[in-house]
Amino acid sequence: MALHDWTIADLEFWEERIAEVAASFGLTPYPIEFRHYNYEQMLDVHAYHLPFRYSHWSFGKAYDVQRTLKRFELTSLAYEMVVNTNPALAFCWRDNSLPLHVLVMAHVYGHSDFFANNVWFRSLTDAAGAVDMFRAHAEEIDLYREDPSIPFERLEKLLDAGHALMFHRPRIAGRRRETHDEQKARLIAARRGEPGPWDHLKPRAERRRPPLELDRIPLEPDDDLLRFLAEYAPLQEWEKRVLQIVAAESDYFTPNVATKVMNEGWATYWHDRIFHALPDRPAEFDVEYARRMAGVVVPGTYQLNPYHLGWAIWKDVYRRWEHPDSDAPDPWGRPGGQGDPKLFEVRDTEHDASFIANYLSDRLIAELKLFRYRWARDRGDEAVYEVLDVPDSEGYERIRLAAAMQVGHNLFPMIRVVDANYYQDRTLVLEHVHDGRDLKIFDPDLPLGDLQTILRERGDLAGEIEPADLAHVLRHVAMIWKNPVVLRTRYDGAPMAVRCDRDGQIGIDLDEGSAPRFA
Amino acid sequence: MSIRDYSRESSGQRAGRDRKRHRAKCRDAIRKGFARLVANQDIIGTDRKGQKASLRIRAFPEYRFVFGRKADAVGAGGDRQRGDVFRAAKGSSPSGAAGPGGREPGEDIYEIEVSLDDIDDFLFDDLELPDFLAKQLRQIPVVEQGGMTGVTRYGSASRLHRRATIRSRIRREQAEVREGEAPEPRFLDEDLRFRRLSERVRLVSNAVLVCMMDVSGSMDDSKKFLARVFFWLLYRFVQSKYEHADLVFITHHATAREVNEDEFFHTRESGGTVVSSAYELALDVIHERFPPDAWNVYAFHISDGDNWQDDNAVVVAAARRLLQCCNLFGYGQVNPTESFYFAPSPSMQWSTVFDVLQPLEREFSNLGFVKIEKRDDVYPQFRELMTRERWKGEARHGPA
Question: In terms of pTM, does the model score above 0.80?
């Protein structure tokens, strides 16, 4: 009856060996529960990421988009999915072949080891309580859904808004959110002359600070948008709970986002080592393995494939610390033979951006032929991109930096709340912390000069260009805040502010004094 | 450690509910944004009833703060030099999912199935035939096949009534025995009996849409495309309201001729423009093949406004006769802004066909005008035409 020629007993046999080999290498994963799913169940768990989650249309969308992509064979069904729980839950596609199942199990051991040891997962998530948390959240949202006094539209809009902001999370692992009073006490203490922890490093002029404004909200810029809104927006209790739920789930997924390259690379690196250390494996395993592995670790042409990049860096780290003299004399005179301890140290402490900044070596950049490029101009219906850096002595550092900006938290602009009562009319001011990359504010994404020309000639931008997605996000925020919202940023080097009024009207300040409006 | 097969258990999740909700949101968006979608050639041209069209549409957007396209990206492979360039279609970053923006909206394509009836529903949902026009529906009797009733001696083999056939053979044999003859022990032609089909007479209303278009040199492809979208809408609308809708295509420059659909949209001829030639031909076609007392006639003419001045008086006369026999006679002027052709000088603009026909508006309430400049105008203009207040008023000079 089964489509496959293996039994659960076969898999148990191989899993036992994988566990032994993994332990002998020093991996310390959570215990793992493998669940075999059919096609629809796999799509399902990929959409929701967990076997139980609250209901929202975006998960249904994820399901249908995946299904469409698969139908047109633009992507294949992922072989597995693991979630960071204790015991780890691993969802495997039932119809995988035996060698593929073995590969997948070894891969899952790698992920589980990473979940159990990396500082981001350890400090931000509670693996043992995760399943219960998601279930409790799902039940709570369902309660609100069924509550006749709560309009469904309102619940859905709140979730939409929560999802729009869910990636704007604090970027420091394990920092506890201070209450307003704690924050105030800290600031006052600092002002009273008790030295702050880093004061001795600062120049004297900087230590003189402007007077404290203790009635200001927030006291310091707040990068946790969801929790800020839950605390200060004029919301009912259940509405605050919805935002807090989204924030809590987002915290749970933040480590995944922050360590995607490391994590996928780690699992790939270890399934490779474990597989080749499996004793007495049949020859056909190796053939199937080689075929699958070739499909997984393909370098992307215009994007970085996290599996491939991560895998390549881990291999390189191992090489450099195990055999440091193989390419060039080691400037630090390291003894070598430190491959595995180094791997574990990096696994424990880094996240993607630091991983790439610290461990993507010049040699590896050259080997992978990485290059930095950027949009240059439009030509008819096509956009032209220009290669800016190639692997050479000038290019290495810039390519490395650009790669570090493509991963983890750097995928998302950093937005924080700086004032909740600007103009004394409860205008909420958000600040985009500009890191050299402009936000997409307009559609099309015209240079500032063109915008000013249009503005001069027509006196209005409406009709020519549209505000981009950003306008919708601001409307989400304004819907929660119930008062105007202003986002401050820089565009083409000039300061710019985007304003969303109570009624959802979007205005953009290009220069001082001119505020073209969009409907 | 444990391995368990869950594939035959019902999964705990409920994607069904959320998928349904997402689809509902998408359908809603389609409904609102159909003006753009309708200008998509993929839909136009499918016209069989009940047919499903798979639209690949953008999934409902989830908005985020994203970076603009001027941010750096990193690629891998190939021996490249600084300053090398490569291209990608506008709007899709070559880096796809891992691009500077992190997420590319272009990735979120998914397929939604809508039937053409749904499309009609999206388009004409709240549109009824204009009251005044609806009163004029001409009904003609049509003979239809009904169910099977009774038995007959003649018919096709597929409707053979076996029980009746055997019964008639037995009856014939018994009669022959009684007559003292040796019965013929086989089926004869005279034994065969067939089920009889009943006929039903029903009143149905038929419509014909007469499409007239200027194909002189100045009507370039972009103008014709707008005309085509408009005609398609009109056709779907007429078809959705009538049992049967026929199409007649007439092109004209200095002379008019009846063409097929393909030619209609793809020929371009040079020469002057004599609009009356098309109206005269339309009148001939209507009177020969679609007598107005049996057909609901819709005539629509699209041009870029140019006409030979001496023809104007003839145009008015012909248009008057058309208005008298049509449920609706419309004139549309397309002036795509992106057209490369010279627009007539400002003083000349609308100086011919529109100006010539406009006075008739006071006289006939079944005359309609539209002006189309770009894709996005088509659907609003169409709606505007169909919901025009004066349709609802009392007709002063309706069609005969």
Answer: no
Contacts of A59 in chain B (CB under 8 A): 15, 18
A456–B contact, CB cutoff 8 A: no
Q: Which range (A61-75, A77-91, A97-111, A416-430) has the least confidence?
A: A61-75
Rounded distance between C-alpha atoms, residue A142 and residue A129, angstroms: 20
What confidence tens digit (pLDDT) does each residue in A4-35 have? 678 888 899 999 999 999 999 999 999 999 99
pLDDT of residue A329: 62
Helix (H, G, I), strand (E, B) or coil at B67: strand
Which chain B residues touch A414 with a CB distance below 8 Å?
none
**Cα A105 off chain centre by:** 25
Q: CA-CA distance, B146 to A159, in Å (whole number)?
A: 56
CB contact under 8 A, B68 and A437: yes
Looking at residue A16, its pLDDT comes to 93
Contact (CB, 8 A) for A85 and A112: no
Alpha helix positions (H), A147-224:
152-165, 180-191, 204-207
Region at B96 (left for phi over 0; alpha for psi -120 to 50; beta for the rest) = left
Q: A438 with B72: CB under 8 angstroms?
A: no
Residue in B12, B73, B95 closest to A51 by CB: B12
Put simply, whether A387 touches B (Cβ < 8 Å) is yes
Residue-wise pLDDT tens digits, A260-277: 999 999 999 999 999 999
Task: Tell whether A504 is within 8 A of chain B (Cβ).
Answer: no
Neighbour tally for A502: CB within 10 Å: 15
Q: Which contacts qualify for A376-380: CB closer than 8 Å, 24 or more apart?
A: A376/B85, A378/B90, A379/B87
In the predicted model, what is the mean pLDDT of residues A298-319? 88
Question: Contact, A93 vs B6, CB < 8 A?
Answer: no
Strand A414-422 relative to strand A427-433: parallel, antiparallel, unpaired?
A: antiparallel
